[in-house]
């Protein structure tokens, strides 16, 4: 069903639109469940951070940033931990299902960023941000998209690993060791969150730029008037 | 593969596909105040269940060299009420009860007849900070044998001079690094750090390492879990 193409005759019979089936149900479920989980994890994570907003010593404490309570989720450390330790399972589960689906279906080949895609990144960046001409559409995902969506998975994996290192520093001591110890794992977890938020910002800009039909495809699976032909 | 379709049919299919996203709305449970508390408690309980499964009795918490110790003056004191609840150190005893062969009041001297273990381990606070401290005391496992505790019981619970209370699972109680601690940095515990006796458990979060112990009970029935847990914090919180 993936990549299936339709030629849709209008009711009046005067127009033909094409539509392609871009996103299977499992991808859409994972996308929205993961998006909501990420929002809750970032919000509750920041409330947890507020309990000790520093990466230095406790005595003396040097506050790195006073993140406003209004922009965090949970209200207090106990509440924030409840949200965080609940939604992390939805985040992990949907991440695993999504990656599993990509591998099992073979569709990871469309999205995976490989060394040969490196050359295509700059022309895409130049087109979006520096008024360069639009590169020809030759594949389902362009080099910049591949870079973004591959990086997003990588960051997702890092967010889980760094989180595990600070949640279970004794049982997963080897993970913490790889990161430089518990103290550093906490810094990496925080940094990875910001990297994900940076990705998210870029992602939302692209969603807006690519219009309604593209956005709808993540809801119904179908994208009208795709830029590319049958594959 | 290209197929023909019609506008009306396409619209209906899109609507069906959209409705198939309905399961995502299950997360809406968390948006409804009436169900939110229960849903979050279940989520936390699940995390605790996984944590208990992850605990390995034979796995030790990292130990550190003396030069890696946080200076004593920089080892924070935390409390929920007062730093020093005014324990009468001369008259202090530990009141032991529950599933044990030898209940009663134990003096510090009695506990100190057990072999002393010293360890430099990381103390992690739920707030997010950590320090490396030097702790000394008797293994809780040795003490449980001394009092003839039923080791198949579920928990060891403690009460404290400031009315703080805690409980730990038996597997953690028997872990070789779980101490009935009476020394810090090779000196007897100071008042604010829990004199004369505290729990020191490098495989647990800080709030489970209760200070100024007054009671100890071996039991399988928990009426209450712990001061912070009963307010919504994790019950197992093993590291």
If you had to describe this structure to a student in words, what would you say it looks like?
The complex is a heterodimer of chains A (231) and B (239). Chain A has one domain: Fumarate Reductase Cytochrome B subunit (Up-down Bundle). Helices cover 61% and strands 6% of the residues of chain A. Chain A has 8 helices and 3 strands; from the N terminus they run E-E-H-H-H-H-H-H-H-H-E. Chain A has helices at 25-51, 77-105, 108-111, 118-129, 143-167, 173-179, 182-209, 211-220, and strands at 5-9, 16-21, 222-224. In chain A, strand 1 (5-9) and strand 2 (16-21) form a beta hairpin. In chain A, helix 2 (77-105) packs across helix 5 (143-167) and helix 6 (173-179) crosses helix 7 (182-209). Chain B is α+β, with helices and mostly antiparallel strands. Chain B has a single domain (58-231), classed as Oxidoreductase, molybdopterin-binding domain (Sulfite Oxidase, Chain A, domain 2, Alpha-Beta Complex), CATH 3.90.420.10. Chain B contains 5 helices and 11 strands, in the order βααββαββαββαββββ. In chain B, strands 3-2-11-6-7 form a 5-stranded mixed beta sheet. The termini of chain B are far apart. The interface between A and B is large, with 51 and 59 residues. Strand 1 (5-9) of chain A pairs parallel with strand 1 (2-6) of chain B.
Radius of gyration of chain A: 21 Å
Known CATH architecture of chain A: Up-down Bundle
CATH class category name of chain B: Alpha Beta
From the 3D structure, determine the CATH topology of chain B.
Answer: Sulfite Oxidase, Chain A, domain 2
**Level of helix content of chain B?**
10-25%
Low-confidence stretches of chain A: none
| Tally of separate helices of chain A | 8
Shape estimate of chain A: elongated
| Rounded mean pLDDT score of chain B | 96
* Average predicted confidence as pLDDT of chain A: 93
Largest sheet of chain B: 5 strands, mixed
Helix fraction bin of chain A:
55-70%
Q: Pair with the most extensive interface?
A: A-B, 51 and 59 residues
Give the strand order of the largest sheet of chain B, numbering strands 1, 2, ... along the chain. Answer: 3-2-11-6-7
CATH superfamily of chain B: Oxidoreductase, molybdopterin-binding domain
Q: Which oligomerization state do the chains in this entry correspond to? A: heterodimer
Strand content of chain B: 25-35%
SSE order of chain B: EHHEEHEEHEEHEEEE
SSE arrangement of chain A, N to C: EEHHHHHHHHE
Number of self-contained structural domains of chain A: 1
Output the CATH class name of chain A.
Mainly Alpha
């Amino acid at each position: 069903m993936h990549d299936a193409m339709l030629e849709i005759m209008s009711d009046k019979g005067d127009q033909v639109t094409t539509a392609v089936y871009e996103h299977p149900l499992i991808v859409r479920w994972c996308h929205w469940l993961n998006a909501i989980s990420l929002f809750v994890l970032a919000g509750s994570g920041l409330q947890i951070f507020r309990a000790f907003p520093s990466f230095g010593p406790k005595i003396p404490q040097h506050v790195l940033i006073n993140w406003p309570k209004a922009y965090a989720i949970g209200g207090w450390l106990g509440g924030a931990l409840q949200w965080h330790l609940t939604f992390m399972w939805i985040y992990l589960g949907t991440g695993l299902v999504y990656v599993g689906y990509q591998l099992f279906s073979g569709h990871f080949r469309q999205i995976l960023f490989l060394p040969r895609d490196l050359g295509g990144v700059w022309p895409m960046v130049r087109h979006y941000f520096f008024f360069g001409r639009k590169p020809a559409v030759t594949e389902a995902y362009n080099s910049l998209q591949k870079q973004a969506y591959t990086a997003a998975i990588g960051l997702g994996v890092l967010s889980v690993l760094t989180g595990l290192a600070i949640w279970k520093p004794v049982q997963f001591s080897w993970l913490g060791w790889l990161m430089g110890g518990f103290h550093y794992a906490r810094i990496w977890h925080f940094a990875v969150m910001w990297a994900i938020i940076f990705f998210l910002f870029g992602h939302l800009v692209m969603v807006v730029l690519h219009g309604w039909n593209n956005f709808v495809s993540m809801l119904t699976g179908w994208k009208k008037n795709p830029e590319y032909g049958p594959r | 593969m290209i197929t023909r379709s019609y506008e009306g049919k396409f619209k209906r299919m899109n609507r069906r596909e959209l409705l198939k996203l309905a399961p995502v709305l299950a997360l809406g449970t968390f948006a409804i105040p009436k169900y939110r508390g229960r849903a979050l408690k279940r989520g936390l309980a699940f995390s605790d269940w996984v944590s208990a499964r992850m605990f390995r009795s034979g796995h030790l918490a990292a130990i550190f060299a003396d030069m890696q110790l946080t200076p004593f003056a920089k080892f924070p004191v935390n409390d929920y009420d007062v730093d020093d609840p005014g324990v009468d150190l001369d008259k202090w005893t530990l009141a032991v009860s529950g599933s044990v062969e030898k209940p009663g009041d134990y003096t510090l001297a009695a506990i100190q007849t057990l072999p002393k273990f010293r360890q430099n381990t990381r103390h992690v606070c739920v707030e997010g900070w950590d320090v490396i401290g030097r702790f000394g005391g008797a293994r809780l496992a040795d003490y449980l044998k001394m009092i003839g505790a039923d080791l198949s019981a579920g928990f060891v619970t403690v009460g404290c001079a400031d009315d703080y209370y805690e409980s730990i699972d038996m597997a953690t109680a028997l872990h070789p690094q779980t101490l009935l601690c009476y020394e810090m940095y090779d000196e007897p515990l100071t008042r604010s750090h829990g004199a004369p006796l505290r729990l020191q458990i490098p495989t647990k979060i800080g709030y489970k390492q209760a200070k100024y112990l007054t009671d100890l009970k071996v039991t399988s029935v928990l009426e209450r879990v712990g001061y912070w847990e009963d307010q919504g914090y994790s019950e197992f919180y093993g590291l």
